[in-house]
Structures are given as structure tokens and as C-alpha cells.
Amino acid sequence: MLWTLLFRPLIEFYQPEADAVSLVVEKQDEAWPMKPDGNGNWTTRLRLPFRQLHGRAYHFEVRRAGRTYAVADPLAPRTERGAHGIGSRFSDLSYRWQTRRFKAPALCDLVIYEAHLPALSRHESAAVHEAGHRGTYAGARAPAVLAHLKRLQVAVEFLPLHASDGLLGQDWGYFSTSFHAMRDGYAHDKCEVNREVMAVVDAMHHRGIPVILDVVFNHGGELWVKAWGKDVVYRKHANGDFCHGSGCGPTIRSEHPRIRELIIQTLLHLVRDYRFDGFRFDLGALHDKETMLAVDRRLPAHLYLIAEPWALGGTQWGKADMHGAFAGTRWAVWNDDFREAGKTFVSGRGSHLDRDRLMRAIMGSHVDDGGWACRPQQSINYLSSHDGRTLADFLDGDKRRVFLGMLLVMTSQGVPMLGEGSELMHSKHGHDNSYDRPDLNRIDWRNGDAHADLVEAVAGLIALRKQAPHFRYTRRLAQRQHDNGRWDIDWIYPTGYPHHDNVNAIGYIIKPPRESSVWRWRWPKLVVLLNGSTVGANFRLPQGEWKIIVDGDGLRVDADGIAGVPPARTDYHVHGGTGVVLAPA
């Protein structure tokens, strides 16, 4: 581990079974002997000025049981693969930040935009004209890219940026070789990879865009294994066989005290030096509960913590723990219940069971409503991500249904997430696992012109969500029970229910969380009507006049009412594959 104290770097290396450890630095004739601290760590402080170390290769020389080994630093700030494997290099982590104090919004106010960093600028339409900048950290700072993200008012969640050398032909980077270093394959100048990552975060913060990083601590970790061995790093079954819960090699043993501490120290490093605003744990259910709880306890309180609550096998917890072990934490999880029910609904293939499941998800998947959450913000609601088909591909290029899907996500309780390029009708030509297809993953920004109406509507929809507290509850919603008692949401079924029901259509009336607020006077109620079927659906409206503020058929959003559309009274007809939001006229 590298610390910069008074410009005299302190080097620390955990090697409890070593007889002796020395530090070998490029361009130095002699190795520096390291001293044990009694806790398994070996340390030394260099006499060289820090600026002279930047970029130099180094490794540890470990003597154990009569043999000598050369070991790369598993916590090196920069790594590089050479003829003899992965090596470690010193790196200056100083950076002149343009945005010194960035305050990310509360989780309930967030709209997440999952993105693969190089895909943002690989296509020529990204207007990245500098030589060698396409598909790089520098390309992600292209004016056109930043302007689009700022217009959407989203928080960007990047797929992994950890050091990875493309094993198995990867494009996404889900097989990390080092968790402390950043991937230099995305750098324009590999010697400056750290500062290039910082520049991306800085540029986004300057435009009000929070940055979340996808971290993959469940498998991989080549440098950890070389430093401490498989028996320390990887989990085993009772019979001694290694666990394989990720489908990408042995599962990392997060419950080992040293591994748990390394995970936490790596996250603190990413916050301190790179200023990420939160983390999404890939296959988070493979980590033991105590590690997840320790991450919540020890990381700064302003950070977002998100996890996938599943794995291929060997899970240590699940969504039910969100109202159990994790109830008092800030952990949120991807909601596959929302995803599956939502996809069948917007494609018009749902059943009564699917609609019931969707209604629970719309209300935040609360455990008392048949779900698993104890508050809406524990649920990350989405229909598409890097895994699986894009929303446009899943819906066969039907733009209005794509907007219906995003309308469903934005008007549901919880935290909405959009897959990269959904608002651009991004297509992977039906491919559902593009981990090794950079040609399919890249974003064609020309679609912003071809589908300008959709982009404008999605931007307006996000702005409406941020404006209206009706969709950002932080507690369980009370459903209307007949005409008695206080209520937050009242369901509206299409005409014909229950005997001639359209199971792919549903609507509801929703109040703001606090009726004493200003919204009691402007929008005391909103009406959301969603129709995923292939035929139109009629809904009975509450008494009064209602103006249309979201028109899914015309792809228009206006909080003051859609121009030229008269107020609705009594009934409203929603075309198949569309949805609307109405407010008091």
C-alpha cells in the first residue's frame, strides 16, 4: 500500500508467512529491506522525492521457507502486463480538481444511467476529433457526450474501470486483475491513467452529474492470488473444492478478515483519490453479510451503495434481507421482480399474476404489500441493463412502447435506472450478451437526431419526476380501502374489470407524500394510466377536469399541460402501447 506522507512514501505489504521482504524499485541499485510490524505487515519508507517515483516499476522480493519470490504489489495504483506477468508501478495520484465540493443528491432524487465508458465515444458521431481519444477516458469527456448526460439530469453508473487486460475477449471489464488500479486500456496516455479517470469524474461533477462505479469483488483478483495464494483469496466448500458462484472462476472469500479489509480499503481509496459518489456491487449476494454491513458502516455516509442480490450459486443473502439484516443500512438492490413484470407488461404479454406483481413493484416492492423492501429506495427499478437485450430490441423497435417502459420506470416508487442509449433507441441487433462485442456496445449519437422526439420526451419525463414528489416517496404507500381512512394511492382498472379485464392495462391516482406541502395546491393528485396491450383501454377519471402533462402517444411532456390538447373529463382512452399522466386542470 502506498501512502504519501511529507513526500516520503510509506510502502506497506501484507505477507504474514514471510521470513524477509525487500522492496525492489526500477533504476535503484539496491533493494530496500522492509520491517515487520507484528501484524503480518512489512513496511519501509523511501528517501526518494515522490516525483522521482512516478511511473517507476517496483515489486516485492519475498523470502519464505528457503525460497525467494518476486511479487507485484496487489494495491499498486497502476499496473502493467509484461512478458513475465502483471507488474506494479508507482503513480502520482495528485490532481487539480475543478469541482472541489460536489454534493450528490439524495438517493430518492436520483435517476441512474448505466453506461460503458468507452462505448460513449467509440462511434465517429461522438465528435471526438483528437487522435486516439475515441473509446477512452478522454473521449467520455467529449462536449457532446457531457451535454447529453447533463440534459438528461442523470447519475452515471459506469461498468467496471478496474485494471483488466481483456481476458476471455472481454469488452465490459468484469474480470479484474487488480482492484486498486484503473484499466489503462481506456487511457489515451497509459502513464496518466489515474489522472484521466479523475478528469472524467471532475468533468461530470462540474456539470452536476454524480458518478457511480461498478465494482467486481466476487471473482478475479489475479494480483491478490499471487500475493497471498488461492487458499486465502478464494472461498471453499466443506469438501475443500473451490466455490464457483459467479460463472467466471472461483468466488472471492470476502469473509476472510484480510480480504474484507482489502475490499473496504479499496473502496475508501476510490472515494478519496477518485471521488466516486457510490458503488454498485456486481453479484453482491456472493459477499457475506458481515462484509456488506462493514462497507455500510465504514464508508462515508453520502455514498450510494447498490448491489445485485443474486448470483449463479452460493449466495450469502437475498432480497429478503432488505427488511432483515440490511433494513437499517443504505444498501439498495437491483429489482428483478420489477424488471420481469415490467417487461411482460410493456410488451403486452402479461397475465393477472404479472399485473399484480407489477402493482406491488410500482408501490416500491414493500414487504407488507407482498414484496421484500422496507422502504422504496431499496429498489433499483429498471427494464434493461448491459445484460440482456436493449429495450429497443426487446420491443422490436416500437418507440412508443420504449417510452411506455421508461414512463413505467419513472413513475414507480424506488430509484429508476435506464440502460445506456435507451432514449436513443440503441440497438445491439438482438444480441443479449455483448460482453465481447465493442462494435455492438458503442453508442451511435446520430440516433439523437433520428429520435429527437424520444430524447426530448425522456428528458422531460426525468425533469417531471424530479419536480413531482408524488413519485419519490421514502415510506410505504397506503392504498385506498373503499372510502375510509388516509390513502396515498388508489388503483384504477380499465373499463370491463373484472369480467372483461385488460390485464395489460392499469392506472392509479397518487397524492404527494405530504399533503400540507405546496403540491397540495398545485397537484393535489396525479393520474397515471398505462396500457401495454395491443388494443386501446378506457379508464374512468376522478371528478373534475384533467390536463395531459405526459402524452405517450405523441411523445410529449409538459408540466403545464400539452398545448392544443383539451382537458379530459369523466373518461380517458389510452391507445395500446402507450401511457399518459394527467394533472388537475
Automatic annotation (TrEMBL):
<dbReference type="InterPro" id="IPR013783">
    <property type="entry name" value="Ig-like_fold"/>
</dbReference>
<feature type="domain" description="Glycosyl hydrolase family 13 catalytic">
    <location>
        <begin position="133"/>
        <end position="465"/>
    </location>
</feature>
<comment type="similarity">
    <text>Belongs to the glycosyl hydrolase 13 family.</text>
</comment>
<dbReference type="InterPro" id="IPR014756">
    <property type="entry name" value="Ig_E-set"/>
</dbReference>
<dbReference type="InterPro" id="IPR006047">
    <property type="entry name" value="GH13_cat_dom"/>
</dbReference>
<dbReference type="GO" id="GO:0005975">
    <property type="term" value="P:carbohydrate metabolic process"/>
</dbReference>
<protein>
    <recommendedName>
        <fullName>Glycosyl hydrolase family 13 catalytic domain-containing protein</fullName>
    </recommendedName>
</protein>
<dbReference type="InterPro" id="IPR017853">
    <property type="entry name" value="GH"/>
</dbReference>
